């Protein structure tokens, strides 16, 4: 079943583009990575789905309900962590979390306590006195305290130190194991690679590619590095991309029959060789060439 | 309505209500405390006032007022109170929605499972409660100062009650127009210049209509709609103008709900 369904969604701010003709869907229980550089339209998409802004044209539904009509109902099942966290400055952390919890039925005190412990968040400090990273932690607890079934994470890890990032990822994985669907927006691809099942790549307001993260990584390219005295021209065969030479290393991306490229390698005398999966970052650069 | 928002918004305004009440009470107390010395020299005072050009008196609403009576004297003081009440109400209306956008906290409430009308209603009722509490306290302070400093003077309680009661629609009008303006503007960075502009602007219009004797300008300024001198003279409000105000309030609030429902909330980053 699809949790999020987006069809031809378009948003213009006056004359400037937000997103254009965006279509995709997110399946129940998956972690969907949404990648693109700043200004590509990631936040616009999330804000449309949360009905913070209204579409110029097109449709979006969550849990099978139209976001422009059933916003409140949909949002009762949604947790949102914004990229930049702004909360009422004069409030204490605990006060803010209780205020947030009051909008969802049930008792969330134990959950708040648990999340605050995991994220090492001090409850009795004022929001205004918190560092950027600590505000982010408040955002995380606030986004998870009501046990949402769908999470929107908009560049969630900026400001968190690596240790906290890991705890946060563990938390998200734990939620995902319970069946929570996650929509993970980022321009930092390493983290998407670590966490996501599928990934959508957005560029200048349009979806360039949606694919399984493994397909994206394995089917297409190998990253090959050869240390050799010979000219890199030796490797100019069809399927070779981004041929570069640096400090004696010849490096390129290859897609195609692996035997052909290995033949070329064995033709010359080499000192060292490595064949790797390219990182998502490297694949991603390919879409932006 | 959502109780949590209502309570939060009320708590936010307590100190502001306190400050406004203190200013208003101070104003009335100081003004009224001078009444006895003022009324004993009334003859000299009236002589002096007669020397002022009529335009000057019109600006301060002095033409229609008999400062020798307690009601008349109180009415003169009330004009300044009106100015404060106008600024307060405009402030609350202008900031109701815009303060969350300028402080970038708007996303918080709007991503909760609440409809925008629910959010607006809760905020609106909290602001109106704050305004009403200010008014009730102000009425109390006014009556107390009148009783305290009246000396031997007689006064007409009915006239005083009419003057004080006018604050309800007067503040509602500034509040709702402020709210409407804040939603017509894309992003309001600071509320104070707007609320001061709205209050003093309409006050100046009222003063000018006094000088020019222009009846049409009357419509534009709520200060004219509830001019205390006129209330004392007629012993009633001008029904036509009150109905106009009521229609304006309903229209402004209605349009505000509509604008808020279709508003795009600007991203904080």
Radius of gyration of chain A: 23 Å
Strand residues, percent of chain B:
under 5%
- Give helix % range of chain B: over 70%
SSE order of chain B in H/E notation? HHHHHHHHHHHHHH
CATH superfamily of the largest domain in chain A: P-loop containing nucleotide triphosphate hydrolases
Weakly predicted, low-confidence segments of chain B: none
- Outline of chain A: elongated
Number of domains of chain A: 2
Radius of gyration of chain B: 20 Å
Describe the structure.
The complex is a heterodimer of chains A (289) and B (269). The mean pLDDT of chain A is 88. Helices cover 32% and strands 32% of the residues of chain A. Chain A contains ten helices and 14 strands. The two termini of chain A are 35 Å apart. Chain A has helices at 42-49, 71-75, 93-101, 109-118, 132-144, 162-177, 189-195, 213-219, 258-267, 280-287; strands spanning 2-13, 16-27, 31-35, 57-62, 65-66, 78-81, 150-154, 181-186, 198-203, 206-212, 222-228, 240-246, 249-254, 270-276. In chain A, strands 6-7-8-3-9-10 form a six-stranded mixed β-sheet, sandwiched between helices. In chain A, strands 2-1-4-5 form a four-stranded antiparallel β-sheet, with helices on one face. In chain A, strands 12-13-11-14 form a four-stranded antiparallel β-sheet, covered by helices on one side. Chain A is of the alpha/beta class and 289 residues long. Chain A has two domains: 2-217, 3-Layer(aba) Sandwich (Rossmann fold); 221-287, 2-Layer Sandwich (Alpha-Beta Plaits), CATH 3.30.70. Chain B is mainly α and 269 residues long. Chain B has one domain. Chain B contains 14 helices and no strands. Chain B has helices spanning 3-33, 35-40, 42-51, 54-59, 70-102, 106-110, 116-149, 157-165, 167-184, 192-212, 215-220, 222-225, 228-234, 239-261. In chain B, helix 5 (70-102) runs parallel beside helix 8, helix 5 (70-102) packs parallel to helix 9 and helix 7 (116-149) runs antiparallel to helix 9. Chain B is elongated and about 65 Å long. The model of chain B has no long low-confidence stretch (mean pLDDT 89). Chain A binds chain B through residues 13, 43-44, 47, 50, 52-54, 71-76, 78, 80, 82-84, 86-89, 99-100, 102-104, and chain B through 2, 4, 8, 103-105, 107-108, 110-115, 118, 262, 264-265, 267-269.
């Amino acid at each position: 079943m699809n949790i999020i369904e987006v069809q031809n969604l378009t948003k213009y701010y006056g004359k400037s583009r937000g997103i254009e003709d965006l279509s995709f869907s997110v399946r129940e229980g998956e972690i969907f990575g949404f990648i693109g550089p700043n200004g590509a339209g990631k936040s616009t998409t999330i804000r449309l789905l949360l009905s913070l802004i209204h579409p110029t044209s097109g449709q979006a539904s969550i849990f099978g309900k139209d976001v422009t009509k059933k916003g409140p109902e949909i949002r009762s099942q949604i947790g949102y962590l914004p990229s930049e966290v702004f909360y009422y400055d004069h409030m204490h952390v605990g006060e803010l979390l209780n205020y947030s919890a009051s909008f969802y039925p049930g008792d969330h005190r134990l959950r708040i306590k648990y999340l605050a412990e995991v994220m090492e968040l001090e409850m009795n400090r004022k929001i205004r006195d918190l560092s950027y990273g600590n505000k982010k932690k408040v955002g995380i607890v606030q986004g998870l305290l009501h046990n949402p079934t769908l999470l929107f994470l908009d560049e969630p890890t900026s400001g968190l130190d690596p240790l906290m990032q890991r705890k946060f990822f563990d938390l998200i994985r734990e939620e995902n194991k319970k069946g929570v669907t996650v929509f993970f927006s980022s321009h930092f691809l390493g983290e998407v690679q670590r966490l996501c099942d599928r990934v959508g790549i957005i560029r200048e307001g349009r979806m360039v590619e949606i694919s399984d993260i493994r397909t994206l990584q394995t089917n297409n390219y190998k990253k090959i590095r050869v240390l050799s005295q010979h000219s890199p021209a030796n490797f100019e065969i069809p399927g070779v991309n981004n041929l570069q030479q640096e400090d004696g290393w010849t490096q390129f991306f290859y897609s195609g029959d692996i035997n052909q490229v290995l033949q070329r390698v064995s033709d010359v005398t080499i000192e060292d060789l490595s064949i790797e999966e390219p990182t998502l970052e490297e694949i991603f650069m390919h879409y932006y060439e | 309505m959502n109780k949590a928002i209502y309570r939060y918004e009320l708590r936010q305004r307590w100190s502001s209500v306190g400050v406004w009440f203190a200013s208003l009470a101070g104003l009335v107390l100081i003004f009224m405390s001078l009444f006895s010395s003022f009324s004993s020299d009334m003859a000299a005072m009236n002589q002096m006032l007669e020397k002022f050009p009529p335009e000057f008196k019109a600006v301060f609403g002095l033409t229609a007022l008999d400062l020798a009576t307690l009601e008349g004297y109180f009415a003169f003081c009330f004009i300044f109170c009106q100015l404060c009440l106008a600024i307060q109400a405009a402030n609350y209306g202008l900031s109701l929605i815009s303060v969350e956008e300028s402080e970038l906290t708007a996303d918080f409430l709007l991503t909760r499972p609440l409809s925008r009308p629910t959010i607006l209603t809760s905020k609106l009722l909290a602001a109106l409660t704050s305004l009403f509490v200010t008014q009730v306290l102000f009425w109390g302070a006014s009556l107390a100062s009148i009783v305290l400093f009246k000396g031997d003077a007689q006064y007409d309680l009915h006239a005083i009650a009419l003057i004080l009661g006018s604050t309800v629609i007067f503040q509602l009008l500034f509040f709702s127009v402020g709210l409407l303006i804040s939603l017509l503007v894309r992003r309001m960075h600071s509320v104070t210049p707007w609320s001061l502009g709205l209050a003093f602007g309409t006050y100046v219009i009222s003063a000018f209509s006094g000088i020019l004797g222009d009846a049409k300008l009357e419509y534009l300024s709520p200060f004219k709609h509830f001019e205390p001198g006129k209330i004392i003279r007629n012993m009633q409000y001008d029904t036509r103008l009150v109905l106009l105000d009521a229609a304006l309030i309903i229209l402004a609030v209605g349009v505000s709900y509509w604008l808020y429902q279709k508003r795009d909330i600007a991203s904080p980053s």
